[in-house]
Amino acid sequence: MRRNVILFGTALLLSLGIGFAQEKDSAQAPEAAPPPVAADDAAKKNPVKPTPEGLAEAKRLYGYHCAMCHGKDGDGKGELAVSMDLKLHDWRDPSTIEKMSDGELFYIITNGRGKMVGGEGDRTKEQIRWNLVNLVHSFGKKSGT
Ligand code: HEC
Questions:
Q1: In ligand 1, which atom is closest to the CA atom of 62?
Q2: pTM for the whole thing?
Q3: Ligand 1 atom 25: residue of nearest CA
Q4: What share of the chain is helix, strand, coil (3-state, %, to 5)?
Q5: Half-sphere exposure of residue 13, counting CA atoms within 13 Å on the CB side?
Q6: C-beta 105 within 6 A of ligand 1
């Protein structure tokens, strides 16, 4: 009798364990990738040429709004990114984003994407957002220009 109770208990624990594991799987699975940036937006050309002043202005903002995730020098290892376990591109290697157009980067900076919630669209002038695009590229250039 006692043995049966133990067996029953073990079976119960096992099935609970399996149920739990399944629940965890289904909770993780649907993290669908955000939809791609629309062709119109991706095709936009950057109207703002990088200048030292423009980059400096973007960098100030970057320090407040972006560096906690993307890292002070664009390595993608900011404190918040580490604690959220985000796998961000290391922009110091330009090949990580070479397939993305300036229009796409601008769109993502403006609207956010996935775990990059919000975006700068409603709080930062368009010109500065394009300068942020320039700044993102500047992390991948050794001379810092
Ligand atoms: C909460 C963390 C977080 C903050 C803050 C954040 N980002 Fe992001 N960013 C992300 C994540 C996550 C992605 C990848 C999104 C995806 O494609 O799913 C991303 C993607 C990007 C991209 C597209 C290129 C790439 O590497 O995927 C750009 C450009 C970008 N961020 C710029 C910025 C700028 C500029 C700021 C500040 C104005 C900023 N981000 C603030 C998390 C963040």
A1: 37
A2: 0.82
A3: 89
A4: 55, 0, 45
A5: 6
A6: yes
